[in-house]
Amino acid sequence: MNSEVQKTDTSRSKHSKPKLIWLNISVFSLTSAIAFIGVPLWGYFVGFDATHWIVTLLCIGYCGMSITAGYHRLWSHKAYETNRWIKLFYAIGGAFAVQNSALHWASDHRIHHRHVDDNDRDPYSAKRGFWYSHIGWMLREYQASRYTDYSNVKDLQRDPIVMWQHRNYLWLTLTVNFGLPIFIGFLHGDVIGMLLTAGFLRLVISHHTTFFINSLAHVWGKQPYSDRNTARDNGFLALLTYGEGYHNFHHHFQNDYRNGIRWWHFDPTKWLIKVLSWLKLAKNLKRSDETKIEMARAEMLLNQTRKKVMHFSLPNKDELLDSLKHEYEVYCAKLAEYYSVKREWVLAQKKQLSDNCDAQSVEIKHKYQQIKALVAQHKENWLNYNKQLKLALA
Ligand SMILES: [Zn+2]
Ligand SMILES: [Zn+2]
């Protein structure tokens, strides 16, 4: 970003309020008014049937997943690769979601990750308050250079689908937002009813569920991986945001195609990408190193317990801190050993050496099973140690 432009933006924002963006204000106000007034009135006087709601839900899913799997994980973070047809599907869905072009969205999002919580540079800094991070940042021309400077998305400028969508964003957005509900409504015999539900209500719900990731996911939830920024993990929010509620993990391991890393974590975006890869429609799915993930958790717990110990004036404080550090180092060393043996075992399996008759394979398998049990024990010891220490201090 041009530093002169940035400096001007920053100083301007400190002295006077930036220009209002009337287009955004009108879109948010009108769509909300129609959804909250028009939908109940039409429902009362005319009524809706199951088709209206099924189509609306499908459209909400299409918009949401185009943003999470397309705009976010594919284009902003390059967490996987896919073909031009899937990209086209996301590009149309992104225009349907009315969240600006993929190029602009990804540029903003990369700035958000790079300068998270920096009130002058993070486009939707949570430290500027809930309203600002949820919607306020789109109502005025804060950091005006964001609207013209796309130097942080040069890779996307080489993507013909991204650039096609960027150039044709306005007509594409109008066509899909009015055309699709009107066409389905025409087939169903209720154009206005479908426009109200699958058009306006769908758009308002889709907008605010995405906006929750910038607002709620930075204030509500746990921080198991890092407290260096405000991002939180929140399972409930993941239900509304197609898996993006695991935001603390995401900020720490942003190129991972998953946000919810456990199999039971509700992350439909991760499942969609996985299914696409099984169908050979996606490849090079990036996963963070498991050792780094577990070590980040251990370090976070170490910091939390350390803070607790530091809070009290104890005569044996140094001793406790040394012992805590020692327990942490023992666990981390065992973790590193475990993942190294696991890698060996995975490699042996890939080379088809896992045959029971193969002596080398049997040895690696045995070593892996032993260390797996051992690291589980070490993990339990580490968690218990922290729990006991915190209880003793409570
Ligand atoms: Zn964030
Ligand atoms: Zn992200």
Provide the domain count. 2
Assembly type of the chains comes to single chain
Largest sheet: 2 strands, antiparallel
Per DSSP, the total helix count is 15
List the bound ligands. zinc ion
End-to-end distance: 48 Å
CA-based gyration radius: 25 Å
Helix content: 55-70%
SSE succession: HHHEHHHHHHHHHEHHH
Helix/strand class: mainly alpha
Query: What's the shape?
Result: globular
Mean pLDDT: 91
Strand content: under 5%
Strand order of the largest sheet: 1-2
Weakly predicted, low-confidence segments: 1-13
Number of strands: 2
Characterize the structure shown.
This protein has 394 residues and is an all-alpha fold. It has two domains: 3-283, no CATH class; 290-393, Receptor-associated Protein. It is 66% helix and 1% strand. The protein has helices at residues 3-15, 22-45, 50-76, 84-96, 102-114, 130-134, 160-167, 169-188, 191-214, 235-240, 247-252, 268-278, 290-311, 317-350, 359-393, and strands spanning 81-82, 282-283. Helix 3 (50-76) packs across helix 5 (102-114) and helix 14 packs antiparallel against helix 15. Mean pLDDT is 91; it is low at 1-13. One zinc ion binds next to helix 3 and helix 5.
